């Protein structure tokens, strides 16, 4: 199947398109620090949004996969004036709507809305930073959950593989 033509509205975030793989570190006041592997895929179908899927897994000291961690999927929707909306869904019963902006190859996002099912853990806010640095996708994620304010939670460096 032929790749669809990219919608012109995607130009500010086109650098994200593709599959990215790498590793990162995580931690939070309520858990021990950990190393994780990650795969992110950004795609498009010719419409003015990117589809997004992220999968992470726990890594042992030698860098081997131990077990799956978090997964999330959603859509990245560019708006006029380099503004951006991101809608993310998690199998743990949480849905987030982020708003932010794109400045060159840097994206800053913060939650506008967080919705949780009755069984989801207490989570109230998130802040994400993405940037293209020397061709690699770097990101950091702060979250407010289980009684803690926005606190550093995870960060990673990913290389484009496809």
Automatic annotation (TrEMBL):
The keyword Metal-binding applies. It comes from the Bacteria. Its EC number is 5.99.-.-. Keywords: Heme, Iron, Isomerase, Metal-binding. Residues 9-160 form the THAP4-like heme-binding domain. It catalyses: peroxynitrite = nitrate. A motif (GXWXGXG) lies at residues 18-24. InterPro entries: Calycin (IPR012674), Nb(III)_bact/plant (IPR022939), Nitrobindin (IPR045165), THAP4-like_heme-bd (IPR014878). Heme b binds at residues 30, 121, 153. Binds 1 heme b group per subunit, that coordinates a highly solvent-exposed Fe(III) atom. CDD domains: lipocalin_heme-bd-THAP4-like (cd07828). Gene3D superfamilies: 2.40.128.20. Its cofactor is heme b. Pathway: Nitrogen metabolism. It is an enzyme of class 5 (isomerase). Forms a 10-stranded antiparallel beta-barrel structure able to accommodate a hydrophobic ligand in its interior. In fact, this fold hosts the heme group, which is located in a wide surface cleft. Belongs to the nitrobindin family. Heme-binding protein able to scavenge peroxynitrite and to protect free L-tyrosine against peroxynitrite-mediated nitration, by acting as a peroxynitrite isomerase that converts peroxynitrite to nitrate. Therefore, this protein likely plays a role in peroxynitrite sensing and in the detoxification of reactive nitrogen and oxygen species (RNS and ROS, respectively). Is able to bind nitric oxide (NO) in vitro, but may act as a sensor of peroxynitrite levels in vivo. This is Peroxynitrite isomerase. The lineage of its organism: Bacteria, Bacillati, Actinomycetota, Actinomycetes, Streptosporangiales.
